[in-house]
Amino acid sequence: MSTEEMRKLNADEPKEEMQNGKYREIYTEEEKKVYQRRDKLDSLYYLRSMMQSLEGVNIIIENRMKFYEEYHLDLQEYVLWGRYLLTYRGTIQEIDQEYLLGKKVDITTLADFMKSVSSLRTEPLVAFPPRGCFCAECHGLITFEDVKEGNFDFKINKFVHKTHKKQN
């Protein structure tokens, strides 16, 4: 099914059928596959299993972005490590400030995260470090821990640590 067909499909009134005195929506096989794919990308099990490595997080971002670009269906919004927002459009944003009232968790929905913060401000994340990325200043590896802690910036088309670890 083409992207244009999916857009038209989304704009149309839902198809309904009467069954046992109640209406239910009818989906084509193609539509079912699209919604199943979205459900997988929105699954906490999938996200938790993939966010065990830097490469996995990059795959999450890429898959969610491709899905939204192709089908223009909103995705569930999640917060990773209290630091990054996976948006409904498949992009990732950095949470600019934290006024956390509770404890940080690895992943939570945006709605649940909002219950533990007094306010939220985000900034688009220009780039996310791939696996095996090195700091342009200290030439040290930008690790998975650096990403979880938000210890990286993307400046002048290069990744750098926000703070450099002391080397003995």
Concise overview:
This protein has 168 residues and is an alpha+beta fold.
Keywords, please?
single chain, 168 residues, alpha+beta, 2 domains, five-stranded antiparallel β-sheet, two-stranded antiparallel sheet, 9 strands, globular
Oligomer state of the chains in this structure: single chain
Overall pLDDT score: 80
Strand order across the largest sheet: 6-3-4-5-7
Please report which band the strand proportion falls in: under 5%, 5-15%, 15-25%, 25-35%, 35-45% or over 45%. Answer: 15-25%
> Helical residue percent?
25-40%
Helical stretch count? 6
Task: Note poorly predicted spans.
Answer: none
Largest sheet: 5 strands, antiparallel
How would you describe this structure to a colleague?
This protein is an alpha+beta fold. The protein folds into two domains: 1-7 and 25-125, no CATH class; 127-168, no CATH class. The chain has helices spanning 3-11, 29-41, 44-50, 54-71, 110-114, 144-149, and strands at residues 16-19, 22-25, 78-80, 84-86, 92-95, 107-109, 122-124, 153-155, 158-160. The strands form three sheets. Strands 6-3-4-5-7 form a five-stranded antiparallel β-sheet. A two-stranded antiparallel ribbon has the order 1-2. A hairpin with a 3-residue loop joins strand 3 and strand 4 (84-86). The model has no long low-confidence stretch (mean pLDDT 80).
